[in-house]
Automatic annotation (TrEMBL), chain A:
Cross-referenced InterPro entries: CHP03960_rSAM, Elp3/MiaA/NifB-like_rSAM, Radical_SAM_N2, rSAM, rSAM_horseshoe, rSAM_sf
Chain ranges of the Radical SAM core domain: 256-501
Alphabetical list of NCBIfam families matching this protein: rSAM_fuse_unch (TIGR03960)
SUPFAM superfamilies: Radical SAM enzymes
MF terms (GO), sorted A to Z: catalytic activity; iron-sulfur cluster binding
Signal peptide residues on this chain, from the entry's feature table: none
Pfam families for this protein: Radical_SAM, Radical_SAM_N2
Coiled-coil stretches noted in the UniProt entry, renumbered to this chain: none
Protein name: Radical SAM family uncharacterized protein
UniProtKB/TrEMBL annotation, chain B:
InterPro entries: DUF2344
Name this protein carries in UniProt: Radical SAM-linked protein
Pfam family, one: DUF2344
Domain of life: Bacteria
Domain DUF2344 stretches: 3-187
Amino acid sequence: MNYNLALSDEILLDLEKPERYIGNEVNSVTKDKNAVDIRFAMCFPDVYEIGMSHLGIQILYGMFNSYDDVWCERVYSPWVDADKTFREKDIPLFALESQDPIKGFDFLGFTIQYEMCYTNILQILDLSKIPLLSKDRTWDDPIVIGGGPCTYNAEPIADFFDIFYIGEGETKYRELFDLYKKCKKENMSRIDFLHECAKISGIYVPAFYDVQYKEDGTIASMKPIYDDIPSVIKKEMCLALSETFYPTKPVVPYIKITQDRVVLEIMRGCIRGCRFCQAGQLYKPLREKDVNHLKELALEALKNTGYEEISLSSLSSSDYSKLPELIDFLIKNCSEKKVNISLPSLRIDAFSLDVMSKVQDVKKSSLTFAPEAGTQRMRNVINKGLTEEDILRGSHEAFLGGWNKVKLYFMLGLPTETDEDIYGIGDIANKVAVEYFETVPKEKRNGRTIDIVASTSFFVPKPFTPFQWARMNTKEEFLDKANKTRKGIMSQLNQKHIKYNWHEADASMMEGVLARGDRKLCKVILKAYEKGCIFDAWGEYFKFDTWMETFEECGVDPFFYTTRERKDDEIFPWDILNCGVTKEFLLREWKNALAGNKSFNCRQSCLGCGAASYGVGVCKEGRTNA
Amino acid sequence: MHKLRLKFSKTGPIKFVGHLDIMRYFQKAIRRAEVDIKYSEGFSPHQLLSFAQPLSVGATSDGEYLDMTVNSMVSTTDVMNRLNSVMNEGITILAVEELDEHSAKAMTDTYAAKYVLSFRPNSKPDFDWIAEMEKYLSGDKLPAMKKTKSGMKEIDMKPMIFAHEFDEKEQTGTFLLSMSSLETLKPTLLFGAFFESIGKEFSTSSLNIHRVDIYKLVDNGDRRYIEPFITNDMNERFYLNG
C-alpha cells in the first residue's frame, strides 16, 4: 500500500469521489521504482469509472507489469471538480500507483477509444505539464504514445503524439521497450529514438510523414521523410490469441464502475461484414480462443477478483463455435458460487433464450435486437443479416418464455436512406407488439403488457469501412429524420406500447468531423481545448457552439469532413495505414451497398478482403457452405 | 451454521473509501478468501453480512465490526487468516468471535464509540484549542443544532459525552461519545458547535477522526456498563451511572 498520496486529506475530502485518485485498489501493482528501467503511465482519457471499465488497459497493464524491468501505472482524466482544484493549486497530474507526477515517466500511453475524448488528451498533457505539441517535447518529457481504434485515423491528433501504435498491443511493446533502453543507454537524441521506432512494424511516427494537399483541400500525397521507414504502416495483430497474455488479476476498483465484472474475451474479430461497422473491419480476421483455456481463465479471474459477475466479450458472441460448451461450464461453476453470467451481443434464438432463462430473471431482463434499419432494402445496403422474420420469430419464442420487454436499435442517416426506410422503424416496432398480443392471450398476461423501446443513433461514417466514402447527414437532416421516426411510431396502432429515444445530433456531427478528419484539425482541437472544451463525450459539458466558433476562427470548414461527396479515388488521411483489408475490397463493398446487394459472411464464403494475409483464424477454417 | 462477529481496522488511503464501497469490498474479499458464507434465498441471493456502524469518509479506525453467517468453517482463526490473506493492507481483521445463534446484530447493540480527534497537519487551529475546549466542555449544557429527518432540532450534547481526555503533547482529544439507534453524537457536530461558541469557523475536513472502538451496553441489573464489542480487557469497561 502506498501511504504517500499526492493529494492532501483536505483536498481529497473536498472532491466528489476521492476514491478516483487514491489508487491502492485490489490487484493494482506496486514496484520499487529504482528497480525498473521503464516507467509507463497508461491513460484512458475519461473519468475513472469509464477508464477502469476498459479491457484493453487491463490487458496491457498486466502484460507490462509481468516484465521485471517495467512498471506500468494508470491515470485517468481528473473529473471537472479535480481538474479545477489541480489548476488552482498547481498540482501536477500523477499516476495512481506511485502517486508520482506523470512528467517524470518514460512513456505516457493513451488508449483512444472514441473521437470525443480528444480534448481530454490535451487536458492530461496540460495537467502533467507536458508540452501539448510533440515538436516542443524533449527528453524531460515522456514519450507520448497512442493506441486503440481512433489511431486508425489519428491525423486530427497527429501533432499531439510522438508515436501511434497501430493494431493489437500484445505484439510489439517488448521490442519498443528494448529499443528505448538501448537508445537511452547510448544517449541517443529523442528524434533519433523516434526514427528507430518508426522502423518497427506497426509503429507510426506522424512527424516523419509529410502531407501535401490539393487545391480542393483533399490530400495529394503522404510521404515518409526518411527512406528507411515504411511508406504504409501495417496493423499489428495477435496471431495466437490463446497463447497470448490475458489478465487473470485485473485491478478491482473500490467504487462502482461501468463494467464492474470479470470480462472474458472469447474471440477477436467478426465474420459479419456490416458495412457501417469499423470494429468489424479493424479486427479481421475472426480468431477464436481455445475453450479450455477460457474455462481456466474464467475460474482464475473470479478467484482473484471476488467479482460476483462474469461477462463474455466479443463483437458477436453467437458466432463463437464452442459457446454452448463454455456457457454450460460457466452455469455449472458459477451457480455454486452465486456468480451471475452476463451475455451481451447474443443473437436471439432458441438457444440463447434457453441460456438467458437460466442466467437472468426473465421478468426483469429485456430482449435486444439491433436491426439497425427499418426495411429489408436498407438492411441489405448495410449488410445487416437480421431479417424481420428473425426478429418476429425470436420475439415470439421469447414471449412464450415470459419476456415482455424489447429493445430495438436503429440508425438514421444511412446511405441511400428514404422516408420508407425511416417509417419502417415504426412498422417493425408495431409488428413486435402485435406478435406479443397474438402470442400471449389476455388471460396469460397477468396484468403485464408489452413494453418496447426503439432507439435511433445518427450514422457517422468511419474510416476503413465501405461507408468511408459516404456523405454524412447534416444536423437538420438528422433531426428531420428523428422527427419522421417519431411520427411514424406515433401513427402505429400500438404506439402507446412503444417508447422512442434518439441521440443528440450536435455530438454526432462533431464525431463525424473528427472521425474522417485530417491534420488541419489539430489546430482546431488545440484551440477548442484552450477555449475550455473538455469532456466532450459528456452531454452536459459538450460545448457545440464553442467548437463551431473555433472552426470559424481557424478557417476550417467542418462540412468538408461530413457532408462532402468523396470520389472513388480520393486519397484519405488514413490511407497511410494498412488495416488488413484492402481499399479495393472496401470500394467493392461500397458499390455493393449502393446496388443494394448483400455479401456473404466469412464463414459462408471468402470475400477476398485481404485479411487472409495474416494466415490465421476464420481465413484458415473450412467453409460450412458456399 | 455459525454466526460470527469480526473486528477490523481501517487505515491509510482506504479511509477515503465510503461505507457502501467498503461493504462491496468485503463481499468480494469474502469470495476471494473462499469463506463459506451463507447467502439469502431468492433469485438474486446476497451474502448474510451486516456492519455495526458506518465510518465517515476520511476517518480511520481500529475498531470496526461486522457480523456474518457462514455455513461451515474450520475455526474462527481460519476465517480470520483466510480473510487477511486477501485483504488490502489498509484493512486488517483483528479478531473473530462466534456468537450465540440468537444474539442481536451488532448494529442493534451499539451504544457508544471512542474517538481520538486531532487536526490535520495543514489545518491546525491558530489558537489553543485544547484549553478552549476544556472550558467549553465544562458548561452545564452544550446545545447544538442537529439535522434530523424533520428538520433542524436543538439538542443538548452534554449527556452524550461519556468521557473525554486531552493529550497536550500529541495535541489530541479522546472522546467516548453516544452512538446508538436512539442518539448519536458525531465528532464533527461537537467540534462545529465548539468552534461556533468561540466565534471561529470550522471546516469538517480539518478534523482528523480516528475511531478507537465501538461499545455495546451490558446491563447486569445493578450495574450497567459499556465495553468494546470484542475485548478481553476489563479496563475497557466504562460504568454508567456510578
